[in-house]
Amino acid sequence: MFQELHKGSFNNNGHRSSLVKVFYNCTFKKNLINFLYFFYIKNMKEGIKLEEIVELLEQNRLAELKEILIKENPIDIAEVFEEFPKEKDLIIFKLLPKDFSSEVFSYLSPEKQQEVIENITDEEIKFIMEDMYLDDTVDFIEEMPANIVDKILKNTSHDKRKLINQMLKYPENSAGSVMTVEYISFKDNCTVKQAIDYYRKIAINKEETDICFVTDSKKKLVGIISLKTLILSNDDSYIKDEMDTNFISVLTKDDQEEIAALFRKYDLTTMPVVDHEDRLVGVITVDDIVDVIDQENTEDIQKMAAMNPSDEEYLKESVISLAKHRILWLLVLMISATFTGMVIKKYEEVLQSAVYLAVFIPMLMDTGGNAGSQSATLIIRGIALEEIEFSDIFKVIWKELRVSILVGFILSGINFLRIYYFTKSGFETSLIVAISMFLTIIMAKVIGGVLPLVAKSLKIDPAIMASPLITTIVDTAALIIYFQLSVIFLHIQ
Q: For residue 317, what pLDDT is reported?
């Protein structure tokens, strides 16, 4: 079936007839799944010769398939693996050399990892666990159900199990939770030759090998030394004379977002993690920080859209879970919008006296909300990159004030001309709308610039102060400005 579909479905000649044959050979459901599956393979995954893999599998030419697979990048193999059904992906996985399969395993989704663990032997599990880097192992275990975790730990060495349990105790999103203990360290009193000999023995099993760390007799971190420096130094020199004592380190309980900021600020590829006594306990590598940055950015985007953050992929998350993450903030914003209603009710007589004023309310509210969101987004980005601090609040106000005056003048001027000449609403109405827009934009941009800074100073995530909340505040204020000006200019009592 797989082979027939593979040969017939994607040829230009007889395309339709081949498909008809396939669909009539088996049940509709099964063929539809296979068709969609191979269509995806053909069009999305050509770079990895997936069609050839399928053909070799169906012809049971496993030795040839193995030769193809071991030439590919483990990440690419993992991507291919994700697309195969269970009965096929396990064949592929077992074909891979042990050291290669463990690397592929670390790049699989939690669902596929669980599938593999459930269907391989204890001996194979033991090899994978021992070959995987410790931080990847911990991340993997955190995603697994209890029965799988028990199976994993049962087939993990005592020493590694001890390290896993230790790392699992660190708070979530802390330095301890993302670090690895697979690093290379030297004593400060050893020679360069001794260090190089030691490096040759253990580097193959370590994750971070470009930067080595130097400790004293009490395991306190006293310096770092690059592999380049190590190789170029005199063999008889002592490590303490060649090491760099100017380094950045973090504590085990430091927040991962702050650590990501340090990586960005100092252009680091690795960072040592120490305990409260400055003893080296692990290192954080740049690949883990990239994941942290991705996670934090996703979280901020969700908060800015008035949703509770979620780590689940959109297509894999249940409808109930998605609804749960969204409804709280929608409820809060819905209730907060009652203030807008209260303002409209207060100025009910104004609206009754000049009903046409209601036509311009949506435009004012939308423009104000958008203006505030623009400023808030830029300030939140500046805070995240540590370009802006709370002490800069008056600089922010002054800049946003000037920007808003310029933007407000242009928009209000265009609106005045548009309303006066095209809607024939009269001079007073055109002027009221124009002035209201001018003042609303100024107010919105200043509020949008200030609120994130205030939130940061109060230890609140600035992302919360983004578009939804700012829009609610600005809407209320814009209506008050609009109606008050209407009362003044139209002499409405």
A: 75
